[in-house]
Structures are given as C-alpha cells and as structure tokens.
Amino acid sequence: MLKFEKSDYAASYGTFKQLPPSTKAEIAFAGRSNVGKSSLLNKILNRKGLARVSSVPGKTVTINFYTVDDIYFTDLPGYGYAKVSDNEKKRWADLMEGYFASDRNIKLVVVLTDMRRSITKDDVNMIEYLAHNNFRFAVVMTKSDKLNKTEYAKRVEEIKTELEGFNPVAVIPFSSLNGDGRDELRKVIDESVAERED
Fold it and tell me: How does strand 26-31 pair with strand 63-68?
C-alpha cells in the first residue's frame, strides 16, 4: 500500500517538450478549472499546502508532478475555462494531448466533477477520450459537503445515467472539507498501482 503522507512537490512543466521520460507509475488528476483538484490532492496526501489552492480559475497552467511514496501524482491543467487567450488554450491542449499520447505509465486518471452540477460537455469529452484510449479512470464528485441529503442522493443516482456506457472503475462523492470519500479514493489508487502490467 502507498504511503500517502510520504509526498513532496517534484516539478512543473509547461510544454510537452519539457516533460521528462516516464520512469514511475503515475496517477493523473484532471478536471475543469476551479473544481477543487488542489484541495483534493492536499486532502488525500494529508498535506495542507502541498498543492497550491487558488480562487482564480485556470491558475494551474502546468502539469505539476508530486512524488508520492514511489510513484508520481500529476496535477493536470484545468480545462474549460474561457478567459484565456487562444494561444494559451492551444498550449494547454498540446500539453494535455502530448501527456496522454506519449506512452507514459499512467495507472489511473481521476476525473473530478462538481457534485452540485450535472457533468459538463468538457467532462464528457475528457471521459470519452479516456474510455476510447483504454485508460483506467475513476470519477470523483467534489464539494459533496455543499449538498443536503436529498440533493446528495439525487446526484448519486443522476450521475449513473450521465456516465452510462463509460464504465469508470469507481464513482466517488468527495469533500476536501470533511474527508468524505478520501479512504475510498485512496483504496482505488492503491488497487490501480497494484494492477499488473499488460
């Protein structure tokens, strides 16, 4: 099992050409800007300020690598935020596409969605890409603490329909505030790292 607390920041890369060769298993985290990726990372790693949290959507413009025990967690640039230039959007797209297409040892992609809302077109595009390219992925519904019991139960049922046909390995409601879903996500990550190579 991974020692999740044994973690540290490793490096950040802003273009595909800067990415180093893949030398370790990687767990990638993807989602729309401001969905709470940094807060989630800090929560599952039990580190308050390891991943920088910003109130400004689109702040993560690099792929940030974190060493966790003997693997990498990679925090991917948030997608779907409109207030950036076309050149910046292209750089992000090239970086993301290059990352996924360069034969890296990606064991799992954690796709974050906001539990308060239906999954977006950008989320669907990401999930379709992962499914089409046979990446193992889990969907994590962030900000679960912001829903009451009725809303929570409703979204748990609705997302089953929204994800029909995609077969994620898990769908996990998650709260960076109270830790809801943290143990389940850690277990899915552990299982994914332990999977034998094809």
Answer: unpaired
Determine the length of the chain. 198
* 135-176 pLDDT, tens digit each: 999 999 999 999 999 999 999 999 999 999 999 999 999 999
pLDDT tens figures, 42-64 = 999 998 878 865 444 445 578 99
For 26, phi then psi, to 5°, come to: -130, 140
Q: Give 3-state DSSP helix, strand, coil % of the chain, rounded to 5.
A: 35, 20, 45
What single letter denotes the amino acid at residue 158? Answer: E
**What are the structural domain ranges in the chain?**
7-194
Q: What is the pTM of this model?
A: 0.92
Distance CA 88, CA 75 (A): 18
CA distance 63 to 165: 29
CATH fold of the domain at 7-194: Rossmann fold (3.40.50)
State how far the Cα of 88 lies from the Cα of 16, in Å rounded to an integer.
Answer: 13
Amino acid (1-letter code) at residue 5: E
